[in-house]
Specification:
The chain has about 210 residues and is of the alpha/beta class. Helices cover about 60% and strands about 10% of the residues. It is built from 10 helices and 5 strands, in the order ααααβαβαβααβαβα. Strands 2-1-3-4-5 form a 5-stranded parallel sheet, with helices on both faces. About 45% of the residues are buried.
Length: about 210
């Protein structure tokens, strides 16, 4: 039997092929999908988040660990959709209009998927109306808007206004290198996360609240 600690350690080390192969083997052995997810993938990325917060890991390590986790999720996602694991909620993610930065948003998406959320990534340079359309289509609980540039942060407020104007139930969570809690409060965002690991906790909080 595959030891799930091996999957965890491979995620931390960013061993993409190893994670995929170990997860597939664990599935073939009949190990429970939720257990593989919780004790393998999530346990690993949680430690990566802690190492990032403490300054032991930096963005390159976070990116490669997220890539490794994503490979494991590719194996598990078809099984998750069969109802083996209850969804934690539905999230639509995009980068604000005028901004084409993608790495941070993709890491957030991967970690949310690992935490049991159904994630639809609608890309970069996304206008407010496209966020609203996607949220309607997916019946989203959360709309996540990312921006790296101070010049594109202002577009986040357009998304919030459009969501409220459309009467959607979705909560709007924002993040990005230049974004702060103060800015989130100013524009009326429902939530703010400074990094990918904390985005998972904030998403859970918004779904419950």
């Amino acid at each position: 039997m595959v030891a799930l600690t091996k999957i965890k350690d491979s995620v931390i080390a960013g061993e993409v092929d190893e994670v995929r192969d170990l997860v597939q083997k664990a599935v073939d052995e009949g190990q429970r999908v939720k257990k593989i997810m919780d004790e393998g993938l999530i346990a690993g990325i949680h430690i990566v988040g802690e190492k990032y917060d403490s300054g032991e890991f930096f963005l390159p390590e976070m990116v490669i660990a997220a890539s490794a986790m994503k490979e494991g999720l590719k194996v598990l996602n078809p099984l998750l959709k069969q109802g083996d694991v209850e969804s934690a909620g539905t999230v639509v993610l995009g980068t604000a209009q005028g901004d084409i930065h993608d790495i941070g948003k993709s890491i957030v998406g991967t970690m949310l998927e690992g935490a049991g959320f159904m994630v639809t990534n609608i890309g970069v340079d996304v206008g407010a109306e496209k966020f609203v359309e996607a949220a309607k289509e997916e019946n989203a609980d959360i709309i996540g808007v990312s921006a790296l540039l101070t010049t594109t942060m202002v577009k986040m407020e357009d998304v919030i206004k459009a969501v409220k104007g459309a009467g959607l139930k979705a909560k709007v969570m924002i993040g990005g290198a230049s974004v702060t809690q103060e800015f989130a409060d100013k524009i009326g965002a429902d939530g703010y996360a400074p990094d990918a690991p904390s985005a998972v906790g904030k998403a859970r909080e918004l779904v419950k609240g």
